[in-house]
Design goal:
single chain; mainly alpha; 2 domains; globular
């Protein structure tokens, strides 16, 4: 929960049922917001059907950093302004960063530009000594 805005963290805690389970991710945002991200009803239906319920505890657990992470070349594809902090952290680590003016679900709605951006980032990794 340290990586989400406090308002979202509070909302997720309120959404959890008595056993601590959250509704599937698409239900966090509402039908109108999801339709804005996934305008095709069939894609939206298939995506929603594949999203499981998750325990709130999974989001509250703090994972220790992995030793020597990352031990391989890394890059970051920023799909929305909501991920600006993570992109800045990646730049600080010296990773190549690309910003694609899209949204969190762009791999479903705009796979071509996402794949192209990933190919470009991968190419930048191979050029590093």
């Amino acid at each position: 929960m340290d990586t989400v805005p406090p308002g979202l963290a509070a909302r997720l805690r309120e959404m959890a049922d008595a056993r601590g389970w959250l509704p599937p991710w698409p239900h966090w945002w509402g039908e109108q917001a999801l339709a804005g991200l996934l305008p095709d009803p069939e894609v939206r239906r298939d995506f929603t059907a594949g999203c499981p319920r998750l325990p709130l505890a999974m989001f509250e657990e703090v994972h220790p950093p992995a030793p020597h992470w990352p031990d391989a070349p890394a890059a970051y594809l920023q799909l929305s302004e909501a991920c600006a902090d993570q992109a800045a952290q990646a730049r600080h680590r010296g990773w190549p960063v690309t910003h694609l003016a899209a949204h969190h679900l762009a791999p479903l709605t705009d796979p071509g530009p996402v794949a192209g951006s990933l190919r470009t980032l991968l190419g930048q990794l191979h050029r590093k000594p």
